[in-house]
Design a protein that fits this description.
3-methyladenine DNA Glycosylase, Chain A; 26% strand; disordered C terminus; DNA-binding
Amino acid sequence: MTAALAGYDDHLPREFYARDALVVARALVGTYLVHGHRVARIVETEAYRGPKDLACHARAGVTKRTRTLYGPAGHAYVFLIYGMYDCFNVVCLGEGKGHAVLIRGVEPVLGVPEDVRSDGPGRLARALDITRADNGADLVSSTHLYLAPRTKRPRIAVSARVGVAYAGEIAEAPWRFLDPTSRHVSRPPPRSIGLGAVTSRR
DNA sequence: AGGTTGATCTAC
DNA sequence: TAGATCAACCTG
């Protein structure tokens, strides 16, 4: 069965992405990531908010690596981390802004093996076979790689971002969003921030 | 603790 | 240029 036949063929429109990464990151929890015949539900995201965000690659300005990050909203930004893992992001806000949302966890829906872990940005890219070859893909017009709207409103917990301690104070900003009811988040929220009781299970 | 590699930075 | 350093991670 193909993704389209299964009803995951709606594409999030350009306007969805053309907002601050902080808004998009929250709105992406519960949406569906489609790559080829594979479909997965997004359960964890992080916002990276341009050159002033010292944890964001945009801090280095426009370079060979950040060209797509600084490109138009709604495109994929895929980069290599630690020499081993690809990380999948969606570009937000608009050309020249350098905003993106990192997808950090998904749960299998269709065509993704249940026995392969898909929590963590490196693992999910591997599970869905997303690589730097997908860097720059237009998620609005592609039939191969895109995001489809969520079908119900998820619960959302908030925490600081993971692995960005070097960025100083801004590392503590509550810019990570996750569905605390999912088994596929990369790690439980260290604490809940302002969203009432958060039950994190693993 | 350490692997592994491309991008970026720093020093000639 | 070339060599050094770093990195939004994962595994053991």
